[in-house]
Amino acid sequence: MQAWLCENPTGVDALRWTDMPAPEPQAGQLRVAIKAASLNFPDLLIVQNKYQMKPPLPFVPGTEFAGIVEAVGDGVKGFKPGDAVAAFAGTGGFATHACIPAALAMPLPPGFAFADAAAFICTYATSHHALMDRAALQTGETVLILGAAGGVGTAAIQIAKAAGARVIAAASSDEKCARCIELGADASINYSSASLRDELKALTGGKGPDVIYDPVGGSLAEQAFRSIAWRGRYLVVGFAQGEIPALPLNLALLKGASIVGVFWGEFAKREPERNARMLGQLAEWYARGLVKPVLDRVLPMTQLPAAFERMSSRQVVGKLVVTND
């Protein structure tokens, strides 16, 4: 097999495409021939030694991927060679093969494209868990999505619309805003050239959004929170801007608002049965055409550094995917 090996987590430049022995599945594991893998923001942080999880060196990065089961270890039930699966495994995806716990594999129904499947679990599970579980989003409510053109943002647009909500997409350029409208957002705000608070006031008649979905953090957080509706729910999804904001808690008091943490990975560990039901519903929505990953680029696996460079430029709309031919 071949893989991008991280021997020293000093950045993308330190990754090396190399030959490695093919892994053998241990008890409870599957060996997957990887067809496609997607880039997530933690994939960049982990090779820079900036992520909360620090795997033992050396390691193969790549959180999320899809492919075909080649072999199964002892005790594995429900999977056999030839099955199509997707997985959010933490590491191992930027390679031609990986061994993963069978419990992390999501069976793919017929017709689920590998490139789509590789870009599906993290963004759609995060957004569904945030909007439907943590925020209890209701039909007719208004959702503000910050960083709406990114991977989780584009997924959140589709899930919120499938739930019958009104969506205001906030992004950093007119081009990204236009793409969000194409994806189903009802309105958009370019927060690089307009006042987020003024635009929200105009778009909601002064009421504010019922739910704020924030994977960005940084300077936008307080502006958005000051605009939240009475009994609003502010979803803390991530900090892609790099800065963890400090929100004045008196605003939560004055608006009767909730600040709600969203950690899908921990939810999946602690509540695996609910997570499995959620993934099943999302797969059904994909089959019905209600959700579909937005793919910015699909590049060969050997061009992973170029994909990382594009991710770092913050020009990506949706997800970047690398594939093994």
Verbal overview:
It comes from Paucibacter sediminis. This is NADPH:quinone oxidoreductase family protein. Pfam families: ADH_N, ADH_zinc_N. One of its GO terms (molecular function) is zinc ion binding. With about 325 residues, this protein is of the alpha/beta class. It folds into two domains: about 1-120 and about 295-325, Quinone Oxidoreductase, Chain A, domain 1 (Alpha-Beta Complex); about 125-265, 3-Layer(aba) Sandwich (Rossmann fold). The chain has helices at about 40-45, 115-120, 120-135, 150-160, 175-180, 195-205, 220-225, 250-255, 265-270, 270-285, 305-310, and strands at about 1-5, 15-20, 30-40, 65-70, 85-90, 95-100, 105, 140-145, 165-170, 185-190, 210-215, 235, 260, 295-300, 320-325. Strands 3, 4, 5, 6, 7, 14 and 15 form a seven-stranded mixed sheet that branches. A six-stranded parallel sheet has the order 10-9-8-11-12-13, with helices on both faces. Strands 1-2 form a two-stranded antiparallel ribbon. Helix 5 links the parallel strand 9 and strand 10. Helix 9 packs across helix 10. It is globular. The two termini are about 15 Å apart. The model has no long low-confidence stretch (mean pLDDT about 95).
